[in-house]
Amino acid sequence: MSIADTVVQVYFLYIGQVAQIVMTGHKRYREMSNKLNHNIDLNQPVVYQIRIKGQLDSQWADWFAGLTIILEEDGNSLLTGPVVDQAALHGLLKKVRDLGLPLVSVSPVVPSPSDTLGTGQADMSDVKK
After folding, report:
1. What is the pLDDT of residue 112?
2. How many domains does the chain have?
3. What is the C-alpha separation between 106 and 49, in angstroms, rounded?
4. In this predicted model, what pLDDT tens digit does every residue of 98-114 receive, in sequence order?
5. How far apart are CA 110 and CA 1, in angstroms?
6. Contact between residue 80 and residue 109 where contact means Cβ atoms under 8 Å apart
7. What are the start-end ranges of the H helices in the chain?
8. What letter would DSSP give residue 79?
């Protein structure tokens, strides 16, 4: 392969990436924001709702320690509970993967002022969509 062929291949690769950015608006090497969200207390666990396609028996409650399992009418299972950090969240998602059941959604539950004071519990209306 000659240098000219390599230059042509690199050129077409570059044009393809530019076209993808223009068409999707996605910038591959965009920087993350350094701004902190001051509304989040990093010392407190975040309550998550993890929805799984399929029904989990009560026998799985010990495996998902600390999470409540609710069987929904549509055949899905909803796991709800506090997750201490992102590493713990990824560990839970790994367990879901290991079960072989499809993951439907993962949503943080944001407590609202209408919550029972001092409990930190949120109701279903507080789930981010």
Report:
1. 66
2. 2
3. 6
4. 989 899 999 998 776 65
5. 57
6. yes
7. 3-24, 86-99
8. E
